[in-house]
């Protein structure tokens, strides 16, 4: 699901790790293009963006509408399109379409070749997509990232460069990792983070899967100020419930949308989030709790017990 949501970043963000996109087309319909459809709202403007791809690199068609009016539509196979709507936007009227690379996303071409006004809805769309962050399988060598941050390693080196080691130590201490950290020069002459034992030990050589996960989350949090949307897949796969709850709380008061995936039913609590913030993912789609039951959900309900008893199996 996360990869599907973030496919749009391929058209806007230059630094995307396409190695994350494997088995791209539906194996049950290998000859049919994959269709992606997004709806964005920025102030009073509604933007609908839909495109089809035959593989992760090859666009088949693309269409963008603003407030119900088509801005452009293009078919990459026939190389035919409708750009009449662009003339209604002075910021785009001077674009040179004659020399446009016909394999390049029209949206990306607009992003790279237009001087968009600060209040342009297209500018808002491009800024939002450029500021999305996706993190998968936090911990160890499995960290993968897409979007605003072009790389996630070496994280500890970045923390030293950003002078965030003390803040990182405080974060670990708050989440059950009591180690004291210091910065030393290793045998290669490079600075590295060490755990301050009687004989200091290099941090990355001894940290557990859970601590590696926390390292990835902390590193990610350094970019939260400029993020628009954060998706963390299996965010709590390597640590305890209390730590998972802390991570949820860390994200709650930020000025961006966030999605976390988990198999941990302990997180199903009205004390943590409202029922409309919890969704159940099945092969049929996503269903919020309040639509999966005929019961009127109240603050005093134990959501985890209701889920385990099968209460949320309606209309799924």
UniProtKB/TrEMBL annotation:
GO MF entries: ATP binding; ATP hydrolysis activity
Signal peptide from the UniProt entry: none
Segments forming domain ATPase AAA-type core: 205-269
Database matches in InterPro entries: ATPase_AAA_core (IPR003959), P-loop_NTPase (IPR027417)
Short name of one Pfam family: AAA_21
Superkingdom, natural source: Bacteria
Alphabetical list of Gene3D superfamilies matching this protein: P-loop containing nucleotide triphosphate hydrolases
UniProt-recorded name of the protein: SMC domain-containing protein
Naturally occurring in which organism (per UniProt): Listeria cornellensis FSL F6-0969
